[in-house]
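Hi,

I'm pasting everything inline rather than attaching a file, because the server keeps stripping attachments. The sequence lines come first, and each chain or strand is labelled.
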Amino acid sequence: MIVGCGFGGLFTARALRNTPADVLVIDHNNYHLFQPLLYQVACAALAPADIAQPIRTILRHQKNARVMLAEVERVDLFGRCVEASDSRVPFDYLVLAPGAVDNYFGHEEWRSFAPGMKDIQEATLIRSRILRSFEAAEIEADEAERAAHLTFIIVGAGPTGVELSGSIKELAVDVIARDFRVADTRRARVMLIEAGARVLPALHSDSSARALAQLRTLGVEVRLGAPVTQVFADGVEVGGERLRSHNVIWTAGVRAAPLTASLGVPLGTGGRVCVAPDCSVPGHPQAFVIGDAAYLVDAASGQAVPGVSQGAMQMGRYAARLIDAELRGIPSERARGFHYRDKGSMATVGRSRAVVELGRLHFGGLLAWLAWMALHVTVLIGFRNRLAVLASWIYSYVFFRRGSRLITGLAPGRIHAPLAPANAAAHTPAAQMPVAQMPPPPEPRA
Amino acid sequence: MIVGCGFGGLFTARALRNTPADVLVIDHNNYHLFQPLLYQVACAALAPADIAQPIRTILRHQKNARVMLAEVERVDLFGRCVEASDSRVPFDYLVLAPGAVDNYFGHEEWRSFAPGMKDIQEATLIRSRILRSFEAAEIEADEAERAAHLTFIIVGAGPTGVELSGSIKELAVDVIARDFRVADTRRARVMLIEAGARVLPALHSDSSARALAQLRTLGVEVRLGAPVTQVFADGVEVGGERLRSHNVIWTAGVRAAPLTASLGVPLGTGGRVCVAPDCSVPGHPQAFVIGDAAYLVDAASGQAVPGVSQGAMQMGRYAARLIDAELRGIPSERARGFHYRDKGSMATVGRSRAVVELGRLHFGGLLAWLAWMALHVTVLIGFRNRLAVLASWIYSYVFFRRGSRLITGLAPGRIHAPLAPANAAAHTPAAQMPVAQMPPPPEPRA
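And the predicted assembly:
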């Protein structure tokens, strides 16, 4: 049984394709999501379907695999079964790959003001909020309030935060500026706030410096060493200073999916399961935890396996090899333990801007950007999705446009997202301003 | 001021591009939706963004046009203003084009069991419900219950009902059959229930007969002269017979958007405004109502202008010409009144199946299908959307696949849509069946 079909779960299932076993994949979504491109959904460049592929379709030809759409609520390690949608499903081997959720570090109340971006629902919500901010700015008569609508604050400068802030800036400057008559979206402020000393802390410091320079060239305001101490409906507090914004996005960190708590075993930082060197739950050699939900220090390098897709994929293939060997009764790699191979890292900042690390080779700029695109299109699951993403990127590159500028899922007629009912009185929403005061259209801009 | 940016509103705005006036377009969505292809979103063939284009982008180069995202709640004809999001916005001329909503003919309580399909939210909801039905069938142990999950009932055989039922049948038979191990989706029943004597009642009877034959070849069960007398959480009642289904879709008719009631003028059938021959509200020559919200008997033909995109577009252009002439102080066509020109009708039933009427020329089959596709791609707004739709159709045609098979927006872990809390106890949802009883995978099918 495989719970969760992200990179870890999917690669486990595929690696078991010739194993003499019934493989049951359970996920609460009917699709595998290519999370590295989720930020492009939030920025209206890609449609959700472009980066999602039905799990059934991926495993269509794998005859030993079955797929079940259900939410796993609890894992019973001793009873060897999981509880999913009020029923109990037994397993012989379990690979738990539930992934991660946003980590608000004890401030869950910030979630409603600063949504994170871990699934399609959240990404389309953020897309709607971003697009609505520009709409609100267009009809806002008050100058300060309009500025707050045109200020975007991204908390946390990991890859998602970096990519998102660059992409929002480009959206405002290159894509939509000519669509608005009153609001000058080219003057939109995008602020990337990071508690640590550099952006992309998981990469080497020269890549961080390179990405920082690229972000600043683009016009993103980066604040380093600036921990966010409070989040409000209309902004954040950073080092005693209050920054106003109606659009705060949380990319400051992740924690393991809450399902790990049901295991009844000790958890490490961020709710991760402290697994044995063979990725199994201590005392339960038939139950593996992989990917973002696992905490494992690689004995060879002395470093924790990072919470990236490569780590999840490698752990999944390792667990599959163990299971396959044991079911066939041949010697397995279990005693050797799992070892992570770092194949490199990359992040993109925007049009023709990216940083790449391949072993000791670190580079940025156009070449890095092309490498980033090539890798992401190649790794993306599904022929159609590859074509669609490639076509969308070419379209955006040539025409400076984005194909998925839809505001959906919010109450009709509300200009701003109804995320913060409690503090809504703290500011006057643009929607309640007399629109008759809407400023006249200025002279056409160049 | 133009309220609503469907076909009527958009064509009014465009026709006013050289008029010496400030054109303000108000819509509660930020996009113009190409409704004729909405059913393809519901059937997972197209992504929502493929058939929606931001209104701002469409009107980007029209310097006299401004766009406002807001919900118009009331029209004050005497005060010459509208109330939108708690503010009052004045107008000199008004073109009201709010479109239509589903008509449950006094049975609003049926809406929760049988959603309609008038906007993107509804279409993605129906998509999720359809896809979840197949998922529920896959893990359902009870034979009768599984059959109910694999039965799709479409109420109303207008163009949307015909297109939807054909497309669902093709989805079940051609697209997803090999993705499932237990449920034989090729045996899914699709029932099209129509109170009247024929399908596509707005077309000529030879086209109806042609479409009926095409539907039956495809395997859709069509029942004519069969009014639905009751809708339940798990089926419908037709002529005393109860048909079980967990997926009932309502395409039985439309009524004018509720905004028309705020005008304080007499309304015709379906809440439509009985407009003067020049499309204006009687007594208010500066206020026009066009499209699905207007009821107008064409003096020349003696027939009501049909609620189709052609009617809305022609009315919009007519109203724009009147306004333009009056603002310029030149003679207008007002006294002549509006006359509808029927440019033909078409509907598609499925792969290589369609019916077309062009004047006296009526034909069906492959040629009609190609004509249907060519027309829809051509009329679709936006270069990118045309390419995307065409590419999706070619992909579907060649590979028998569909690119947008996402279940979104429903509570995670719920197998079936939580539409009917009141009657939910009437049947046992599949999600609550012991999944351990899930039947074993059968031998691979050919």
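The radius of gyration of chain B is 23 Å.

If the labels don't parse on your end, tell me and I'll reformat.
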